[in-house]
Design a protein that fits this description.
Radius of gyration: 26 Å
Order of helices and strands: HEEEHEEEHEHEH
Number of helices: 5
Shape: globular
CATH architecture of the largest domain: 3-Layer(aba) Sandwich
CATH topology of the largest domain: Lysozyme-like
């Protein structure tokens, strides 16, 4: 009987010790998790400096030319802001004049990409970051903006090379973020609430453009490209 009680007392002491040790380990684990979570949340705060590779592009066919820091806001999309939209713009000028404008800190606007009439693509802001392009903060935070060289009242400015290059770019963006290829998620600047812009204008062929985007996305899928690649 005494041996049993001693054994029971010993078991209880061992049990209490195990609880203390286990509790300490759990608390340490929780502290590590909390620290990791705080670090993750910190890096997701808009405006926090994050490690970037200079000159890196998100689209393999693009050439990097940096926009002025005044024309965009650093972020960590899609972690801090989900991306669910592509917004189509027209430059109302030449390719070079658009690049120059987006490099000007006084311009206070820029898109992520510019597509030329010859099909060349320049990236000026990382997709991670928020470009000032839509004139609406919510739409800026949730979209990728693409400028197209030309004027809204000149249908001849929208060349085959431009449509095809832009469609390939948009297909990649849609694949990367799981954006549906439809007119609810691929829109014109004119459709952004509160904007006074009219681009891409009445001569932009939406039916043709969406068909090209779907074809580009399907062809990459059939070729075995990973989602978002």
């Amino acid at each position: 009987m005494g041996e049993n009680r001693a054994s029971e007392d010993g078991d209880r002491r061992i049990g209490r010790r195990a609880l203390i040790v286990g509790g300490a380990a759990a608390a340490a684990g929780t502290a590590v998790l909390a620290r990791d979570e705080l670090a993750r949340l910190w890096w997701r705060v808009p405006g926090v400096e994050k490690p970037r590779e200079q000159g890196a592009v998100d689209y393999a066919g693009a050439r990097w030319v940096a926009a002025s820091d005044a024309n965009w806001r650093r972020a960590d999309r899609p972690d801090d802001f989900g991306v669910d939209m592509v917004i189509v713009h027209v430059t109302q000028g030449s390719f070079d004049s658009a690049v120059k404008a987006f490099q000007d800190p006084g311009h206070r606007a820029s898109t992520h990409y510019i597509v030329g009439q010859d099909g060349r693509v320049t990236q000026m802001i990382r997709e991670l970051d928020v470009a000032y392009h839509a004139g609406n903060r919510d739409y800026n935070e949730r979209s990728v903006g693409i400028e197209h060289e030309g004027f809204v009242d000149r249908p001849e400015d929208f060349t085959d090379e431009m449509y095809e290059a832009s469609a390939r770019l948009t297909a990649r963006i849609c694949a990367r973020y799981g954006i549906p290829v439809d007119r609810e998620h691929i829109i014109g600047h004119v459709e952004v609430p509160g904007t006074d812009h009219t681009d891409p204008g009445p001569h932009w062929d939406w039916d043709r453009y969406l068909k090209l985007v779907r074809r580009a996305r399907t062809s990459r899928t059939k070729a075995g490209a990973p989602p978002g690649a």
